[in-house]
Amino acid sequence: MKATGDWEQFIDVVSWFVEPGQSVAVGEARPWDRGSIDDLPVLSALLGAATLTPVSVGGKPYELLAWGSPDARRGWLCHPPHEADGERIPQTHKGFWRVCGGIVERFGEPETWWLNQNQVLTSDAAGLRVASVLNDYDWLWQDEGLRIPIDPDDYYPVAVEANGNLTLARRDDGRLLVFAPDHSFTGVRPLPGCPPYSLLTIDDVPDLATWIEVCAAAW
Protein backbone atom coordinates (compact mmCIF):
# COMPACT_ATOMS: atom_id res chain seq x y z
CA MET A 1 0.00 0.00 0.00
CA LYS A 2 1.37 3.40 -0.95
CA ALA A 3 2.07 5.72 1.97
CA THR A 4 0.08 8.95 1.97
CA GLY A 5 1.77 12.35 1.89
CA ASP A 6 2.66 14.45 4.91
CA TRP A 7 -0.33 16.77 4.53
CA GLU A 8 -2.75 13.85 4.28
CA GLN A 9 -1.28 12.27 7.42
CA PHE A 10 -1.42 15.61 9.23
CA ILE A 11 -5.03 16.33 8.33
CA ASP A 12 -6.05 12.78 9.23
CA VAL A 13 -4.93 13.54 12.80
CA VAL A 14 -5.74 17.28 12.98
CA SER A 15 -9.00 17.07 11.05
CA TRP A 16 -10.44 20.22 12.65
CA PHE A 17 -7.76 22.52 11.24
CA VAL A 18 -9.45 22.99 7.85
CA GLU A 19 -12.93 24.44 8.21
CA PRO A 20 -15.76 23.46 5.84
CA GLY A 21 -15.50 25.34 2.57
CA GLN A 22 -11.92 26.52 3.11
CA SER A 23 -9.59 26.26 0.14
CA VAL A 24 -6.42 24.19 0.52
CA ALA A 25 -3.38 24.21 -1.77
CA VAL A 26 -0.49 21.84 -1.08
CA GLY A 27 2.88 22.47 -2.68
CA GLU A 28 5.73 20.13 -3.48
CA ALA A 29 7.59 18.59 -0.56
CA ARG A 30 11.32 19.33 -0.37
CA PRO A 31 14.24 18.80 2.02
CA TRP A 32 15.07 21.46 4.58
CA ASP A 33 17.49 23.98 3.03
CA ARG A 34 17.62 26.91 5.49
CA GLY A 35 20.66 25.87 7.46
CA SER A 36 21.17 25.90 11.22
CA ILE A 37 20.42 28.26 14.13
CA ASP A 38 23.20 29.58 16.35
CA ASP A 39 23.14 28.14 19.90
CA LEU A 40 20.46 25.55 19.02
CA PRO A 41 22.38 22.49 17.75
CA VAL A 42 19.72 19.90 18.65
CA LEU A 43 16.95 21.85 16.96
CA SER A 44 19.22 22.55 13.98
CA ALA A 45 19.89 18.83 13.53
CA LEU A 46 16.15 18.10 13.74
CA LEU A 47 15.31 20.76 11.17
CA GLY A 48 18.09 19.51 8.92
CA ALA A 49 16.34 16.14 8.76
CA ALA A 50 12.89 17.61 8.02
CA THR A 51 10.81 17.51 4.88
CA LEU A 52 9.08 20.84 4.24
CA THR A 53 5.74 21.05 2.45
CA PRO A 54 4.30 24.51 1.71
CA VAL A 55 0.56 24.69 2.32
CA SER A 56 -2.08 27.38 1.94
CA VAL A 57 -5.32 27.13 3.95
CA GLY A 58 -7.99 29.71 3.26
CA GLY A 59 -5.37 31.82 1.50
CA LYS A 60 -3.05 31.83 4.54
CA PRO A 61 0.44 30.34 4.05
CA TYR A 62 1.85 27.62 6.30
CA GLU A 63 4.73 25.18 6.21
CA LEU A 64 4.43 21.56 7.27
CA LEU A 65 7.65 20.07 8.66
CA ALA A 66 7.68 16.29 9.02
CA TRP A 67 9.92 13.42 10.04
CA GLY A 68 9.75 9.64 10.30
CA SER A 69 9.01 6.61 8.16
CA PRO A 70 6.72 7.14 5.15
CA ASP A 71 3.67 5.54 6.75
CA ALA A 72 4.18 6.91 10.29
CA ARG A 73 5.10 10.56 10.05
CA ARG A 74 5.19 13.18 12.76
CA GLY A 75 5.59 16.91 12.48
CA TRP A 76 4.68 20.55 12.94
CA LEU A 77 2.46 22.95 11.06
CA CYS A 78 4.25 26.30 11.16
CA HIS A 79 4.03 29.87 10.02
CA PRO A 80 6.62 30.90 7.41
CA PRO A 81 9.80 32.63 8.65
CA HIS A 82 9.30 35.96 10.39
CA GLU A 83 11.59 38.98 10.28
CA ALA A 84 12.39 39.91 13.87
CA ASP A 85 14.97 42.69 13.62
CA GLY A 86 14.21 45.47 16.07
CA GLU A 87 11.91 43.37 18.24
CA ARG A 88 12.75 43.22 21.95
CA ILE A 89 13.24 39.48 22.23
CA PRO A 90 16.31 37.25 22.80
CA GLN A 91 18.65 36.51 19.90
CA THR A 92 17.76 32.82 20.25
CA HIS A 93 14.16 33.57 19.27
CA LYS A 94 15.18 35.91 16.49
CA GLY A 95 17.36 33.15 15.06
CA PHE A 96 14.43 30.74 15.22
CA TRP A 97 12.12 33.17 13.43
CA ARG A 98 14.59 33.58 10.56
CA VAL A 99 13.95 29.96 9.57
CA CYS A 100 10.52 29.19 11.10
CA GLY A 101 7.66 31.45 12.13
CA GLY A 102 6.47 29.24 14.99
CA ILE A 103 4.30 26.17 15.51
CA VAL A 104 0.49 26.19 15.47
CA GLU A 105 -0.30 22.46 15.31
CA ARG A 106 1.56 19.17 15.74
CA PHE A 107 0.85 15.55 14.87
CA GLY A 108 2.42 12.33 16.10
CA GLU A 109 4.09 14.31 18.86
CA PRO A 110 5.98 12.98 21.86
CA GLU A 111 5.33 14.31 25.34
CA THR A 112 7.23 17.57 25.77
CA TRP A 113 6.67 21.05 27.22
CA TRP A 114 4.97 21.82 23.89
CA LEU A 115 2.13 19.34 24.50
CA ASN A 116 -1.34 20.96 24.47
CA GLN A 117 0.08 24.32 23.34
CA ASN A 118 -1.97 26.27 20.80
CA GLN A 119 0.97 28.50 19.90
CA VAL A 120 4.69 27.77 20.21
CA LEU A 121 7.25 30.48 19.40
CA THR A 122 4.82 32.41 17.18
CA SER A 123 4.56 36.17 16.75
CA ASP A 124 0.89 35.95 17.83
CA ALA A 125 1.98 34.50 21.18
CA ALA A 126 4.79 37.03 21.54
CA GLY A 127 2.32 39.87 21.01
CA LEU A 128 0.23 39.02 24.07
CA ARG A 129 0.76 41.48 26.93
CA VAL A 130 1.87 39.65 30.05
CA ALA A 131 0.87 42.50 32.36
CA SER A 132 -2.77 42.23 31.30
CA VAL A 133 -2.86 38.53 32.18
CA LEU A 134 -1.05 38.85 35.52
CA ASN A 135 -3.16 41.83 36.57
CA ASP A 136 -6.28 39.68 36.12
CA TYR A 137 -4.75 37.15 38.51
CA ASP A 138 -3.27 39.59 41.00
CA TRP A 139 -5.60 38.12 43.64
CA LEU A 140 -3.45 34.97 43.70
CA TRP A 141 -0.68 37.00 45.33
CA GLN A 142 -2.94 39.30 47.37
CA ASP A 143 -4.63 36.32 49.04
CA GLU A 144 -1.21 35.22 50.29
CA GLY A 145 -0.13 38.70 51.35
CA LEU A 146 2.35 38.83 48.46
CA ARG A 147 3.08 41.03 45.46
CA ILE A 148 3.97 39.89 41.94
CA PRO A 149 7.79 39.72 42.11
CA ILE A 150 8.56 40.44 38.45
CA ASP A 151 8.00 43.33 36.06
CA PRO A 152 5.58 41.72 33.57
CA ASP A 153 6.82 43.97 30.76
CA ASP A 154 10.24 42.30 31.03
CA TYR A 155 8.68 39.05 29.78
CA TYR A 156 6.76 37.88 26.71
CA PRO A 157 4.92 34.61 25.90
CA VAL A 158 6.74 31.96 23.90
CA ALA A 159 3.87 29.47 24.18
CA VAL A 160 0.14 29.64 24.90
CA GLU A 161 -1.56 26.51 26.22
CA ALA A 162 -5.12 25.57 25.31
CA ASN A 163 -6.28 26.32 28.88
CA GLY A 164 -4.60 29.74 28.89
CA ASN A 165 -1.37 28.90 30.72
CA LEU A 166 1.60 30.83 29.38
CA THR A 167 5.28 30.00 29.00
CA LEU A 168 7.24 33.23 29.37
CA ALA A 169 10.76 34.27 28.39
CA ARG A 170 12.59 37.29 29.76
CA ARG A 171 13.33 39.72 26.98
CA ASP A 172 16.95 40.45 27.83
CA ASP A 173 18.30 36.95 28.54
CA GLY A 174 15.60 34.36 27.79
CA ARG A 175 15.08 33.32 31.42
CA LEU A 176 12.05 31.00 31.42
CA LEU A 177 8.93 31.06 33.60
CA VAL A 178 5.56 29.35 33.34
CA PHE A 179 2.38 31.11 34.43
CA ALA A 180 0.05 28.23 35.24
CA PRO A 181 -2.95 28.83 37.52
CA ASP A 182 -4.40 25.60 36.02
CA HIS A 183 -1.83 22.81 35.77
CA SER A 184 -0.83 19.27 36.70
CA PHE A 185 2.86 19.67 35.80
CA THR A 186 5.64 17.81 37.51
CA GLY A 187 9.20 19.08 37.62
CA VAL A 188 8.17 22.65 38.40
CA ARG A 189 8.36 24.84 41.50
CA PRO A 190 6.97 28.25 42.43
CA LEU A 191 9.16 31.25 41.75
CA PRO A 192 10.28 32.69 45.12
CA GLY A 193 7.56 35.02 46.39
CA CYS A 194 4.82 33.26 44.44
CA PRO A 195 1.94 30.93 45.40
CA PRO A 196 1.98 27.33 44.05
CA TYR A 197 -0.32 27.89 41.06
CA SER A 198 1.10 31.06 39.61
CA LEU A 199 4.60 31.79 38.30
CA LEU A 200 6.75 28.67 38.17
CA THR A 201 10.26 27.67 37.18
CA ILE A 202 10.98 24.37 35.41
CA ASP A 203 13.62 22.15 36.97
CA ASP A 204 16.70 21.90 34.72
CA VAL A 205 15.10 24.15 32.07
CA PRO A 206 16.22 27.65 33.08
CA ASP A 207 15.99 29.50 29.79
CA LEU A 208 14.49 29.68 26.32
CA ALA A 209 17.36 27.94 24.52
CA THR A 210 17.28 24.98 26.92
CA TRP A 211 13.49 24.73 26.60
CA ILE A 212 13.71 24.60 22.80
CA GLU A 213 16.57 22.07 22.83
CA VAL A 214 14.88 19.76 25.35
CA CYS A 215 11.68 19.73 23.32
CA ALA A 216 13.50 19.28 20.01
CA ALA A 217 15.44 16.32 21.42
CA ALA A 218 12.18 14.47 22.13
CA TRP A 219 11.18 14.69 18.48
> Count of helical segments?
7
The mean pLDDT is 94
Net shape: globular
Q: What radius of gyration results from the CA coordinates?
A: 18 Å
Computed structural class: alpha+beta
- Biggest sheet: strands, sense, closure? 6 strands, antiparallel
Order of helices and strands: HEEHEEEHEEHHHEEEEEH
Number of strands: 12
End-to-end gap: 26 Å
Helix percentage: 10-25%
Residue windows where pLDDT falls under 50 for at least 5 positions = none
Q: What proportion of the residues form beta strands (DSSP E)?
A: 25-35%
List the helices and strands and how they pair.
Layout: H1 6-13, E1 24-26, E2 30-31, H2 41-48, E3 51-57, E4 60-69, E5 72-78, H3 91-97, E6 103-107, E7 117-120, H4 123-126, H5 130-136, H6 138-142, E8 155-161, E9 166-170, E10 176-179, E11 188-190, E12 199-202, H7 208-218
Antiparallel strand pairs: 1-3, 2-3, 3-4, 4-5, 5-6, 7-8, 8-9, 9-10, 10-12, 11-12
Helix pairs in contact: 2-7
